[in-house]
Structures
1.
Amino acid sequence: MTTPETGILPQHLLGIEGLTRDQISLFLDHAERYASFGARDAAFGRPLDGRTVINLFFENSTRTRTSFELAAKRLGADVINMEVGASSISKGETLIDTAVTLNAMHPEALVIRHADSGAVALLAQKVNCAVVNAGDGAHEHPTQALLDALTIRLRKGRLEGLTVAICGDVAHSRVARSNIHLLTTMGATVRAVGPRSLVPSGVRAMGAEIFHDMREGLRDVDIVMMLRVQTERMQGNFFPSAREYFRFFGLDREKLALARPDALIMHPGPMNRGVEIDSDVADDFERSVIRMQVEMGVAVRMAVLELLSNRTGREVVK
Ligand code: ASP
């Protein structure tokens, strides 16, 4: 498979904010080619043969790390997973020293997840390989938004003109932020739906409409994107109880009936069944594309790793 002209892309993928329609489309078009090949390695041509990709995860992750690992391996790269707990970070080395040390081993790309917003961008300034943000705090998770967009595009044939409701814990969600940037840039209408305590008014400035009544927010939408309630990022009480939350903001058949009859159900995972989503709708394979999202994750990460590799003119950091 030939690699398209990548001159319009930035050196790193730190977020969706600031990317143009053309840049987003380039990632999606290339990922779609990988998605159509399925898992048949021979068709990929191993464009990263002999290169190294390092996964540097400062925050727990199973699905995202595995997905990046599989993507890099399908491209033919060698993959190193940094066990951060066992690394020199715990011996007092600074974040920046860790990144500079890894950079000196000349990887093709560093895939970084960190609990603090902005930490990945900081590290990217200190290295000359490509850096891919695999999630930084509540800031951005760009490959998640790309895989969500690819899933929507494959099922609906377009992004432009669709209405997407992003529901639940918007305040703590990097998935929501990246999706709002991507979907508004691509011409979709985005609604942020959830309790006042979990939908910051700042999302309006990002182009989303705000709804605090889920029934209103879901009316006639094409896509219902549920978010996990991220209790690990909450200090104090943001809602009275999980039961109460489900009653007002959990997706069940009755609330789903307000969306368009062909509306798709999405969730980035991991799901809190019975809190933000009922199993009955999560497992409705006519409407729920949650498994397809996971599958598209590998295709998107292959495209991102390949397109950000082999770039000429990288500034050498001293
Ligand atoms: N897996 C996604 C993330 O890392 C969503 C979540 O954890 O709720 O942000």
2.
Amino acid sequence: MTFEELHIDEKLLEAISYMKFEKASPIQEQAIPLALEGHDVLACAQTGTGKTATFLIPILQDLIQNEAHGLTSLIIVPTRELAIQIDQELQGFSYFTDTTSKAVYGGDKGMDWDEQKRAFTEGTNVIIATPGRLIAHLRLGYVNLRHIRHLVLDEADRMLDMGFIDDIRQILGYIPIKRQTMMFSATMAPEIRKLANTILVNPKMVSIAIAKPAEGVTQSAYMAHPYQKVDLITHILEQNPDYDSILIFTSTKRMIHSIVSAIKKKIRNVTAEGISSDFEQNEREEVLLRFKAKQTKILVATDVLSRGIDIKGINLVINFDVPKDPADYVHRVGRTARADAKGEAVTFISESDILRFKKIEALIERPVNKLPLPAELGEAPVWKDVLPKPQRNHKKRNNHSRHKHFHHGKPKGKGENK
Ligand code: ADP
Ligand code: MG
């Protein structure tokens, strides 16, 4: 489907074509017409499928059509990076219109506070906000959400994971009940449905696929001991000299610095940087910009980056360790092969990560190809298809006669069987 077929305003169509969007993606094709008709929408699609435009285009069309004034549209997102990115995309789409927008998120500098406050008091049309910062402004009394026509919850699953549910409920209290609400999520976990039931009215459900990495991603994995991992990165980079944009994920912030410096030590003249939520906002933006501009070849990041952030042309994603939440795997891997391109994702699995990786394989509904570790790196840990009984600490189970059978049976611990 082309965007012309949506019968939207010329100014919007022109901007879309400037942004080099030619065909609507499947989620756009299905959800935009419903949203244009004014329905509430609950959309589930993997990362990189074009959800942003799915909600921005109908919002902008409505604002143009109704010559909207003041604050009419609120987009709630989990992270500041995502807020900035959506604002940038919105500025592209609204280039030929009068619509104004502002990203509102927590920062370390007092000066953006005043700028954000002005956005509220001077009637900016679309606010893209993180929940905590929006509430902070709301408490000061100058924010008027009574004319909100559109509410979007983007990355709703992430917001729930991050514990924003109470904040979101609080914000809902300020918004008119009569409005259009759109909710987006990469997964449809039961909690997401529950939230949807409370905030959407007769929603149209659009679901593109269960959470699976985009088709264009080649996934593989190596079994590796922690001390072999940096050498393995070196090996992979030597095998792929044409790769110019590589994203390495680790679950632990404190590993970032050591990975970056180990890589720099091993590989001559390589440009590598780290980024995490510990970095100041402007520092994070600069690091991201250098990576996007391909001035930095390797970026080492925690999961703050794995959701929603859109960087084109990443050749390779390396999971230095296996993410704790299987959905994070999908998000990490989704950073490569954005919108139909090809990409590669490699995961390093140490012995203690096997169980976690099995959960990921269960989620994506297929095993990931395990590659043999290059011989010069030494002996790899062994991938075990059947795992031994997890070792656990039976503190409460000291009544041996009563629980005799427990030790022979399969212990069903919390979270172990999920
Ligand atoms: P999601 O939110 O589903 O993860 P995004 O909205 O961030 O995905 O889109 C991923 C990338 O694909 C972005 O770079 C976006 O500009 C691009 N994109 C989205 N829709 C289209 C389209 N119809 N044609 C071309 N590129 C698109
Ligand atoms: Mg998105």
